[in-house]
Amino acid sequence: MNRYFVEFIGTFFLFLTIGTTVSLGAPGVIPPIAIGVALAVMIYAGGHISGAHYNPAVTLAVTLRGAAKMGDMLPYMLFQVLGGLGGAVVARYLTGKPLVAAAPFPALGPVLVAEVLFTFALCWVVLNAATAKANQGNSFYGLAIGGTVMAGAFTVGGISGGAFNPAVAIAAAVQGLLPASQVWAHVVADFAGGALAAIAFKSLSTQDS
User: Fold this and answer.
1) What's the Cα-to-Cα distance from 12 to each of 16, 88, 91, 187, rounded to whole Å?
2) Residue 205: what pLDDT?
3) Residues 6+ apart with CB under 8 A from 93
4) Which of 23, 31, 54, 151 is 20 to 30 A from 87 via CA?
5) Cα-to-chain-centroid distance, residue 141
6) Do residues 117 and 193 touch, judged by C-beta distance below 8 A?
7) For 2-208, CATH number?
């Protein structure tokens, strides 16, 4: 159970950072930087206990890659979603922002492409920085993963909302930061990106098979 609670805590603070910085209308560069740093430090804090996925798409990728137990996959995902929802509730309380439904993105195609691409990038970096034999015991994996999310938020945050994480997408919809009617697109795209990253890793990093 310790692993599951660590996943809850990490995802909670990840979304709390997202929910507060975005809701308060922080200047453009602040949310991506804060989110990337929050993810990095939570990864360093919990990596030795749970692997610090904090993202159902990452859990899928790591499981398909063979670096996590299949029996842990659904509990991890459940606690990640619960952590994101907890972060959304606290973010709403702290900011005092009422729940206002976000307008749907005008073009669903770019949302799907952006989420697939940068979830792929995130999971690709996780698999290579945190699970590859050549990088065992490194101290840079947290910064690499947090930096990928930060880069994605800067690059396509204005196109898709920059979730790259089904738990974040669900929590963002609850808080009103993403349109609830399009959460399915984020969930499908993010899981697809995670699965593709696992396939690419297993195909290209044959020494880790």
Assistant:
1) 6, 8, 10, 18
2) 83
3) none
4) 151
5) 15
6) yes
7) 1.20.1080.10
Quickly count: other Cβ atoms within 10 Å of residue 54's Cβ: 32
CB 197 within 8 A of CB 55: no
Q: Are 135 and 205 in contact (CB under 8 A)?
A: no
* Interaxial angle between packed helices 141-160 and 108-126, expressed in degrees from 0 to 180 and rounded to the nearest 10: 180
pTM value is 0.95
DSSP secondary structure letters along 169-205: HHHHHHHTSS-GGGHHHHHHHHHHHHHHHHHHHHHH-
Q: Is 98 exposed, middle or buried (0-12, 13-18, 19+ CB in 10 A)?
A: exposed
> Who's near 65: CB < 8 A, 6+ residues apart?
127, 131, 198, 201, 202, 208
Torsion of CA 32, 171, 130, 202, to 10 degrees: -110
Number of neighbouring beta carbons within 10 Å of residue 167? 32
Across the 209 residues of the chain, what is the mean pLDDT of every consecutive 10-residue run? Answer: 96 96 80 96 96 97 94 97 97 81 83 97 96 90 97 94 96 91 95 97 83
Nearest to 39 by CA among 28, 47, 50: 47
Start-to-end CA span in the chain (Å): 28
Residue type, 155: T
